[in-house]
Amino acid sequence: MNDSTLALLGGAPAITASGPHFAWPPITEADRRAVDRQLETAVSIPDRSGVVADLEDALASYFGVRHVVTTCTGTAALHSMYAAAGIGPGDEVIIPALTFHATATPLFHLGAHPVLADVDERGRLDLEEAARRVTDRTKAVVAVHLWGLPEDMDALTSFADEHELMLLEDGSHAHGAGWNRQMVGTFGTASAFSLNGPKPLSAGEGGFVATDDTELYYRVLLHGQYNKRCRREIPAAHPLARFAVTGMGLKLRIHPLAAALARAQLTRLEDHLAGRQAVAARMCAVLDGVPGISVPDLPAATRPSWYALPLRYEPAELDGLPIERFLDALHAEGATEADRPGSTCPLHTHPLFRTPGALLPGYADGHGLPADGFPAAEHVHATTLKLPVWHHEGDVRLADAYTTAITKVATNAKDLT
Ligand SMILES: *Cc1c(COP(=O)(O)O)cnc(C)c1O
Fold first, then answer.
1. Catalytic annotation on 139?
2. Could you report the per-residue pLDDT of 244-280, keeping only the tens digit for each?
3. Per the residue annotation, which of 199, 228, 386, 414 is the catalytic one?
4. Together in a domain, 251 and 273
5. What is the pTM assigned to this prediction?
6. Residue 400: which domain range?
7. Exposure of 340 by Cβ count < 10 A (0-12 exposed, 13-18 middle, 19+ buried)?
């Protein structure tokens, strides 16, 4: 037995450091102090004051947008964004078929239809497929920036212009990511972000909507931030001001402790992104030549947030070794954080998208789903391996250990077939 014997076949594992190997968000003394201070200040904030105002101001300035409204989750942010954009019963919104379900699901609660469109071989929205799905009910198209790799925003902006659609963004994987030096989340009429636990900017639980459109901002407030916020932020003379007390009847405020955590994390976001960029570049440089593995092919215009490093698995280069077996071997080597995408998957595979009527009265089964499914979304999902991207110099050895483990499994794959 030598170094190259795979751990799955009884060899020594490539990685011996005990797990978990990746934890997010990184919690510092500054985070603890911020949350502690907030506990002493206020644990409920009904208006735009204190840490909620601080966080929204800091986000607005970071993104360079006029308005930011925080919410309790990213799902709520998407819901408020769609409602505020005036999307309603019968309207259609084009969503990439490969994303996390909450990009689309709030539309069901507005009586609207998410219209799925297939992706290209990189997992980005396929604009020819999207064009085929445009009808006279189509109101908007949503850019997702999967895994923090920005969509081609030149192409998406022209697509939206050409078809006279509103461009909206779900930036939940992509805080601080950019296209041509412009931050994602600032290309469309509005954008929604999650601040959930593992996201590049984390509040634990939270989200926000960003927009330059003041009317849309008022409607975001009315959707989920009723009473004091609406009364103080919507001018009394505005025709919508009379709805301030109830808004649209939902309450989707962020928790002040979550806002305090996100505010403290935001101070370090640029450092986190720069660290991830360096580690991702290092990992890609090694993995680029490994048989059976392709690294993302990034246009020069992109600045990713590296929510994850999505690798494409090419079984044909490894005598047809199934991805499950490759991953088992990788886990046996100790690369326990290597994974396949779970909940981020082709949306038409969820029962909610196939047979929504069982839960949501008025929705016909199979609406807008093509008989042959979404072959590219299925292929991309079935062949993606994802790795965490560390941001800290101290974790470079772990990153190297992961690329070593992948190299070891790939170069010895013949022993597994
Ligand atoms: C996480 C996520 C959401 C939902 O955010 P929550 O804060 O979990 O509600 C929506 N879209 C995408 C792409 C996400 O990754």
1. no
2. 999 999 999 999 999 999 999 999 999 999 999 999 9
3. 199
4. no
5. 0.98
6. 269-416
7. middle
